[in-house]
């Protein structure tokens, strides 16, 4: 593990200085450190009343606030920092946070797309680029990565996470935190990472934004908490954000069992917990507290250190301490955490460390950052289907490029685009032009009315078919159609849940109209979530999932279509056949009647298959890979799983070799398959490699109904392959002696 703490911290020097500061601080000053205000650069939550804005202004000018979000750019940050340092009694610097999710100025693919690369080094590099650019704009704290496991493609925020799997999600959480925080937090190009949302926001019922999460203890521990646990143990994120939603009827901000006991107790987390926007106040609407005063009390006692935009700490904490309802030691502990991360960032040595106009001029949107965005985009593309040699495109075919999204320079930037300029991405048409492809273009149908960058609510086009005739005529004349469909940037993200996740608006109708005259369609699907693509799957020869790929979207997509890049992405989420199957995920439990029977009484739908349209881990290549010779060997502290992968085709390519297990019999029912390892390998045409993956104790055990980690003896299935439908199988027997030698977690 790379430590992000500096020498001074290890020797406890900060703690002594924090003690000294705490001793000098008034209660008002302490509460200020626990209060976070939003600036005016961006609106990422409900705006406060006008009188609050005036109060905010006054407090900020007097340096009474600990941190801000949504203040971006060296000049703006400098102004606020000057207030804090020069106008306050103790000169405590502020921290400046922002939602830097997949880039600051240079956009890399949305996080869900990056997860499809399964390329941890590249994901880390992408987070690094984001941190460098954010720090160059005066920021020192990002509210990322979101590590919420989710099985809910209707939930708009799946675009912001790593998908449905806790193992893949854990590795990606570690990579992102390391990318943001680097090796030394006090360097002027690293920023605090925040793992969020703690916890279970991704389990919002029916995919409705902010909805209740109804999960049991074992799902909480085995599915939701692992990415938090992995990041905390292996990457040392210095902040955690709690969640809007309730779990077991308790809102995240008021959840003492999660924050005090699990996070700060078991995990010994010594960084800072920040509330979500207004989430302390929202406990009133949840019916969990009666009023603002109680909200403040419950939140601080539960371990939520900083209040973002609720104002309840500001209004009530002092009084709560004076009345004896909250011990001042609780406040001191929270303030200590805030001061500690400020020390780690080096802000006490130099409050202007992140504020440098020259860096702001030279380190944004650089060629090298755009190259990272391109590399990341290429690896994030998933080839879902490819029949009849549809792809790569052959040079002698006449191409019709159709779809409004094919020329859209905004949609690829995706949601949560920080400070990126609107309409600044490379479109697919730009990519075709750069590659010198010959094509005829027609927009077919508008996806969204109004400017897709600014407009909300999104006005989906359900009426205007003016472009249909021209597109159909062009498609009829050409050999090959490249049809680009999907979602604009603001159709996914926070507040963008959808009940119907088919192609929005009239796009399905356009697809069918074009198919009627020319079925040679390569369907490019641009979206922030898995969509239902069942009709397309049954009718078109090739489907490419391109998500929202960031600034270099068009170049990356063109590279894959032409075969310059051999696609290697694998799905981080299952694609349903229909909305009624949701939640559908590969690591489900068996039922008591899983298999087909003659009679009707078994676990199935009468009008739909049980399987997803495209499984977790699925993704094709222009070559193909054969797996063989699977063996397992029990070693002292792990099980060695080894197998051979052969590139059996005629092109070089990359494959994500995946390892799944099933614990056949356990004290709680275990999933039918669980990802427990993977390796991304490059294989030249005809080349074979033997791969060894280790299953350690951590991978073989699980959390039981008491929330305790156990490894149990017995038989384990092992599956390997290039998808969660991995066909190659073996098994091994784990004895109590082995478990002893593995050591408990
Ligand atoms: C989101 C957080 C985000 C915060 C600040 C909230 O609405 O849930 O993820 O960090 O706003 O913008």
CATH architecture identity of one domain? 3-Layer(aba) Sandwich
Tell how many strands the DSSP assignment holds: 27
Q: Give the strand order, joined by hyphens, for the main sheet.
A: 11-18-17-16-12-13
CATH superfamily membership of one domain, which one? Glycoside hydrolase family 3 C-terminal domain
Unique ligands: beta-D-glucopyranose
**Unreliably modeled segments:** 1-8
* Distance between the amino and carboxyl termini: 17 Å
Largest sheet: 6 strands, mixed
Overall geometric form: globular
Q: What helical percentage do the residues reach?
A: 25-40%
Specify the structural class.
alpha/beta
What is the count of helical runs?
24
Query: What is the CATH domain class of one domain?
Result: Alpha Beta
Query: Which percent band covers the strand fraction?
Result: 15-25%
CATH fold-level label of one domain: Rossmann fold
How much is the radius of gyration in Å? 26 Å
pLDDT average, as an integer?
96
Describe this structure in words.
It is a single chain. With 745 residues, the protein is an alpha/beta fold. Among the domains are: 366-573, 3-Layer(aba) Sandwich (Rossmann fold); 625-742, Immunoglobulins (Immunoglobulin-like). The protein has a 6-stranded mixed beta sheet with strand order 11-18-17-16-12-13, covered by helices on one side. A 5-stranded parallel beta sheet has the order 4-3-2-1-10. The chain is globular, with a radius of gyration of 26 Å. The model is unreliable at 1-8 (pLDDT under 50). Beta-D-glucopyranose is lined by residues 44-45, 69, 99, 143, 196, 276-277, 494.
């Amino acid at each position: 593990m790379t430590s992000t703490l500096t020498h001074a911290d290890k020797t406890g020097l900060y703690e002594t200085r924090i003690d000294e500061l705490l001793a000098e601080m008034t209660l008002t000053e302490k509460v200020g450190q626990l209060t976070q205000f939003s600036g005016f650069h961006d609106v990422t939550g409900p705006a406060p009343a006008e009188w609050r804005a005036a109060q905010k202004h006054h407090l900020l000018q007097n340096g009474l606030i600990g941190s801000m979000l949504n203040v971006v750019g060296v000049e703006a940050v400098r102004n606020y920092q000057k207030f804090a340092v020069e106008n306050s009694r103790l000169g405590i610097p502020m921290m400046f946070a922002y939602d830097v999710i997949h880039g600051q100025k240079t956009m890399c693919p949305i996080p869900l797309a990056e997860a499809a690369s399964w390329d941890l080094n590249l994901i880390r590099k992408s987070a690094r680029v984001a941190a460098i650019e954010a720090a160059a704009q005066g920021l020192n704290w990002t509210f990322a990565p979101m590590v919420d496991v989710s099985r809910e493609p209707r939930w708009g925020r799946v675009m912001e996470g790593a998908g449905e799997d806790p193992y893949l999600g854990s590795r990606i959480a570690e990579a992102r935190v390391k990318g943001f925080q680097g090796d030394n937090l006090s360097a002027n190009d690293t920023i605090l990472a925040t793992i969020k949302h703690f916890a279970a926001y991704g389990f919002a019922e029916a995919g409705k934004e902010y909805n209740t999460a109804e999960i049991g203890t074992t799902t909480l521990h085995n599915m939701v908490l692992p990415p938090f646990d992995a990041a905390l143990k292996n990457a040392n994120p210095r902040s955690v954000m709690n969640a809007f939603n309730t779990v077991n009827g308790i809102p995240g901000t008021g959840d003492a069992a999660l924050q005090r006991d699990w996070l700060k107790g078991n995990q010994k987390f010594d960084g800072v917990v920040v509330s979500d926007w207004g989430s302390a106040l929202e406990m009133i609407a949840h019916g969990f507290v009666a009023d603002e005063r109680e909200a403040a009390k419950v939140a601080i006692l539960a371990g939520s250190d900083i209040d973002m935009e609720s104002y309840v700490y500001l209004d009530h904490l002092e009084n709560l301490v004076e009345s004896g309802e909250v011990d001042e030691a609780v406040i001191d502990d929270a303030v200590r955490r805030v001061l500690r991360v400020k020390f780690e960032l080096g802000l006490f040595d130099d409050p202007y460390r992140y504020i440098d106009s020259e860096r702001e001029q030279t380190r944004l949107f650089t060629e090298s950052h755009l190259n990272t965005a391109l590399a990341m985009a290429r690896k994030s593309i998933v080839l879902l289907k490819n029949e009849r040699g549809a792809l790569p495109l052959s040079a002698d075919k006449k191409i019709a490029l159709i779809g409004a999204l094919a020329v859209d320079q905004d949609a690829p930037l995706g949601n949560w685009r920080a400070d990126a300029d609107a309409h600044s991405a490379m479109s697919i048409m730009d990519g075709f032009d750069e590659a010198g492809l010959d094509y005829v273009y027609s927009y077919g149908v508008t996806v969204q009315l109004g400017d897709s960058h600014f407009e909300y609510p999104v006005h989906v086009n359900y009426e205007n078919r003016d472009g249909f005739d021209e597109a159909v005529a062009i498609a009829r004349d050409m050999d090959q159609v490249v049809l680009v469909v999907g979602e604009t940037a603001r159709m996914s993200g926070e507040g963008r849940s959808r009940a119907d996740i088919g192609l929005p608006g009239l796009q399905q109708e356009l697809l069918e109209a074009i198919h009627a005259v020319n079925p040679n369609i390569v369907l490019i699907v641009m979206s922030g979530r898995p969509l239902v693509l069942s009709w397309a799957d049954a009718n078109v020869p090739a489907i490419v999932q391109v998500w929202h790929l960031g600034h270099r979207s068009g170049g990356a997509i063109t590279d894959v279509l032409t075969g310059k890049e051999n696609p290697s992405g694998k799905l981080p989420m299952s694609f349903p056949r229909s909305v009624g199957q949701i939640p559908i995920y590969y690591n489900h439990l068996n039922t008591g009647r899983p298999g087909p029977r003659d009679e009707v009484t078994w676990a199935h739908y009468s009008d739909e298959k049980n399987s997803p349209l495209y499984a977790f881990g699925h993704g094709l290549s222009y070559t193909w890979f054969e797996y063989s010779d699977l063996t397992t060997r029990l070693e002292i502290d792990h099980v060695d799983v080894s197998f051979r992968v052969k590139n059996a085709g005629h092109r070089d390519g990359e494959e994500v070799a995946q390892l799944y297990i099933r614990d056949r019999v356990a004290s709680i029912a275990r999933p039918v398959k669980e990802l427990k390892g993977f390796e991304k390998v490059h294989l030249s045409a005809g080349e074979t490699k033997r791969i060894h993956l280790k299953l350690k104790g951590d991978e073989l055990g699980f959390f039981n109904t008491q929330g305790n980690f156990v490894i149990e003896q017995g038989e384990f299935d092992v599956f390997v392959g290039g998808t969660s439908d991995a066909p190659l199988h073996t098994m091994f027997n784990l004895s109590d002696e082995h478990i002893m030698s593995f050591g408990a977690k």
